[in-house]
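anyone seen this seq b4? input:
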Amino acid sequence: MATTNPLQFIQQVRAEVAKVVWPTRREVMLTTVMVFIMAALTAVFFATVDIIIRWGLQNVLSLFG
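predicted toks r here
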């Protein structure tokens, strides 16, 4: 593995950082809102599945008890 001196390393890091395309404020806000929406939908889905499974288990266990 080739080693580089610290000056070359810093130059390479700066060159790579210059290639990064940073998101705009609007893009960040939009993706943040989308994450919250998807998290809420996922929570509703799993809560619904939990309620259905609980109801089913209560019905099955009531047959034996």
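The radius of gyration is 26 Å. Helices lie at 6-19, 25-64. kinda curious what u guys think
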